[in-house]
Amino acid sequence: MDKNKANIIWFKDLGIEDVPIVGGKNAALGEMFANLTQLGINVPNGFAITAQAYNNFLDKAGIRVGMEKILKDLDTGNMRALQKAGKQTRKLILKSNLPKELEYEIAAAYKELGKQFGTEEPDVAVRSSATAEDLPDASFAGQQETYLNIVGVKDLLYAVKECIASLFTDRAISYRKDKGFSSTGVALSVGVQKMARADKGISGVAFSIDTETGFDKVVVIDASYGLGEMIVQGKVTPDEFVVFKPTLAEGKRAIIARDIGVKDVKMIYGRRGTEIVKTSPAEQAVLCLTDDEILKLADWVVKIEKYFSDKKGHYQPMDTEWAKDGVSGELFIVQARPETVQAMRDKTLYIEYRLKEKGKVLTTGTAVGAKISTGKVRVIRDAKNIGRFQKGEVLVTEITDPDWEPIMKIASAIVTDKGGRTSHAAIVSRELGITCIVGAVNATKVLRDGMEVTVDSSGPVGSVYEGNLPFEKIEHRLDKIPETKTKIMVNIGSPDEAFEKWQLPVKGVGLGRLEFIITEHIKIHPNALIDYEKLKADSGNAEKQKIVQEIDKLTVGYTNKTDFYVSELAEGVAKIAAAFYPHEVIIRFSDFKTNEYRTLVGGALYEPVEENPMIGWRGASRYYDLKFKEAFGLECRALKKVREEIGLKNVSTLIPFCRTPEEGKQVLEAMKINGLERGQNDLKVYIMCEIPSNILLADEFLEICDGMSIGSNDLTQLTLGLDRDSGIVAKIANERNPAVKKLIAEIIKKCKEKNKYIGICGQAPSDFPDYAEFLVEQGIESISLNPDTIIKTLELVAEKEKQLGK
C-alpha cells in the first residue's frame, strides 16, 4: 500500500513517521496500537482518514480558492474580522459534499470496525489530527474538535466534515497565524476510533511529568466521572493522583498523592448528543479510581514515555488521555501526544518571582505558571463578549475553552472560578507563559472591571492582591553554580513547595516539617481521630458533637479516621522525599507546642494550658507519654508507609527537643514498637541539638543516634535565657553570641570525632551569611537553608572553602 495515495489507513499500519500523512494524534495512536498493545496497554482500534483525502475533498469540491480568499490578509487581532472569516470558511466546508469514492471507503472501513466488535454500527469517536500537530514548538492540542458516540454511516460522514471544518475555528486560525503557518498550510486527518464508554465510567488525562514544575520523576493523573471534556473545559475540579516513577519501577505501591476533587457534574450521552448531569453525593465523596487502577495507568504512561523517548532518541515526556469503560470495567489509552511546555524549557535556568511587598488578598486558587503579573481586571462571562478585552488586561471568567484563545494570548494574567491544573485555561496559560490562577471559586464575584490587581502564581497557592504591587524576577544559571564539599540542603515545610523547589542545586532536605501537613491538610488533633467513636457516642455533649461534625467533613471517604491521619502524613512526606530523591530527606517528628496543638480540631480536649509552652510538653517528651503515645504511633506508621510501601528509603527521622539520653531511649523504644527501628532497612535516627544538655552530654546522646542536627533558634534561647517572642529581650542577642557559637563549635567537633552526622537546620545561616562562613570553618557536614537563600549561600560557601583550601 502506498500510504501517500491512500484515503484510509488502519491504526496497525501507522507509525510516528506518518505525521505528514495522518497528523500527530493519529500517528501516535497507530504507533501505540501497533507496538504497545503487546505490552498490555489497551488502545481502542480504528482507522485514519488521511490528509490526502482532505486535500482531495477541498480540490474536488472546488472550495480551496474560496477559503484562501476569505482568509487572505486576515488580521487575527481583529476579533470581529476573525469571527466573520472563520464562520464563512466553516460554512463553505459543511455545505460541500465529500467525494463519493471517499464516502464508500469510510463506510466500508466503519463496517469492518463493527465486525471486530460484533456489531453493524459501532459507536466511535471521531477525532481531528492536524498534520502540524504535536511539533516541538507547537502542540495544536485542543485546536480542532472531537465528536463522541457517533453511530451510523450518515452521522459518521457528517462528523468527518465537522472535524475538517474545525480546522478553521477562530482559535485555530489565530493559533496558526501566531505560529507562522499559512491559513491553509496545515492539512487535517480524521481518526475514527472505537469508543470506550467513559460516559458510563471515568475518564481523564495523565502526564508523565508534573506540568507545573517540570518535575520529571512523577506521573500525574487527573480523573473525573463521565466524558473527559469536563476536565478539559474546567467544569469540574478532578481527583488528582501522583505516582513516583523510580519506586513504581521497583514494584512498590508508589502513590505519593491522592487529592479528591469537586466532581459535582459529569458529561454523558443524551438523546441528542451529550448532556451534563449532576453526580450523586456518594460519587462526590470518594476517589473515582482505585489504587490498583492508578498504578496500572501510571505503569502504562511510563511505558508510553519510554517508548516514544527511545523512538525519538531523546527524553520525551508525554500527555495522554485515558478512559475507563463503564460497561466492561477496562481501562484504555485513547490519545497520546508529546508534552511540549516543560520539554522545551531550559533546564539550566532557574527563575524565581518574588513580591517585594504584600497587599490585601482578594481571592485565591490553584497557581499555574509560577509567575507574577499586574494589570486591570476585565470580567467576561461569555465568549461572545471577548471583543471587549484589551491587551494587557487580567482576564477573569468562570472557565475558558478554545474559543477564548485569541484573547488569552494578549492577557497579562488569567483567573478562573473553576477548573484544575489540566483545565483548558491552565494548559494554554502554560504554553503561552502567562500567569494563571484556576479554581478561584469567587473570582468573578469579587473582582470588578478596571480594578488594578497583582496576580501571583509563584507559590502553590495563587493569590490575587489588590493594587499594583512591586515584584522582582531573579534568574539563576544552574550550570554556573559551584560545587561545595559542605553539603548544602534545604528546609521544606509544604509538600507542594517541595515540588516547586526540586530544581534547587541541593543535596537533600535537612529539615522536613510535619507541622505544615498537620495544620494545612489534616487540621485535626490525632487523639480526636483515635477517639472518634467515643466522641460520637457521647451524643449529649454539644462540643463533642461539633468536633465529630468537623471530623466527618474533613475525612470524607475514610471509615477509619486514623487512616486519614496516616495517609495524609505519608503522602505529604512522600512528596518531599520524592522531590529530592535519591538524596537524604530528614523528617522531623511533630514539634507542636501545647498551645499550637490546641488550635487543631478537638485540640482543647487533649492539651493542657501551659504558662510557657516553649519549654513545656513538646517534642520527645510527648512520644512515650501515655497521653500521646498512640498519636505518635500514627506518625511512625506514616513514615513506615513512606519507606516500605512507597519505597522512599531516603527518608531519615529526627527527634526534636530531646532533653536527656534516657528520654531518647524511650522514644527509640516507642518507634520500634510502631515498626521504625534504627538501623533496620537503613533507617537513620538523628536528634535535634537545641538544648545545652544535648552538647554537655554529647557522648551519651551520640551512642543512641546517628548524629545531630543543630536547631540554632531554640539553642540560642535556652543558652541565653531569651524568649524569641518577647519584643523586650529578643533584641539583646542572637545566634551570633559567642556562648552559642562556642556550643555549636563543640558539638561539631564531638560528632566529627565519633564519625557521626552533624548538620544545622536552624535559621541562623539563612539570616546571617557570616554564620555560614563560621560553620564551614568549624567543618560542619551540612547546612540546611531556607529555599530563597540557597544559591547565594552556595556561592558564599564555595568561596569560603576556597579560602580555607578545602
Distance between the termini: 68 Å
Q: How large is the radius of gyration?
A: 30 Å
What spatial form do the alpha-carbon principal axes imply?
elongated
Unreliable runs: 133-141
**Number of helical runs?**
31
Largest sheet report: 8 strands, parallel, barrel
Spatially, the strands of the biggest sheet line up as 23-24-25-26-27-28-29-30
Structural class: alpha/beta
Q: Which percent bin holds the helix content?
A: 25-40%
- Total number of strands: 30
Q: What is the average of the pLDDT values?
A: 92
Tell me the strand percentage band. Answer: 15-25%
SSE blueprint and pairings:
Blueprint: E1 8-10, H1 19-35, E2 46-49, H2 51-61, H3 64-71, H4 79-94, H5 100-116, E3 124-130, E4 146-150, H6 153-165, H7 170-178, E5 188-194, E6 202-207, E7 218-225, H8 229-232, E8 239-244, H9 245-248, E9 255-259, E10 265-269, E11 274-278, H10 281-284, H11 291-312, E12 318-324, E13 331-338, E14 349-355, E15 361-368, E16 372-379, E17 394-397, H12 405-408, E18 413-416, H13 424-432, E19 435-438, H14 443-446, E20 452-456, E21 461-466, E22 471-477, E23 487-492, H15 495-500, E24 509-513, H16 515-522, H17 526-530, H18 532-537, H19 542-554, H20 561-579, E25 585-588, H21 594-597, H22 620-623, H23 629-645, E26 651-655, H24 661-673, E27 685-689, H25 692-696, H26 698-703, E28 707-710, H27 712-720, H28 738-753, E29 757-760, H29 764-767, H30 769-778, E30 782-785, H31 790-804
Helix pairs in contact: 3-4, 4-6, 16-20, 20-23, 30-31
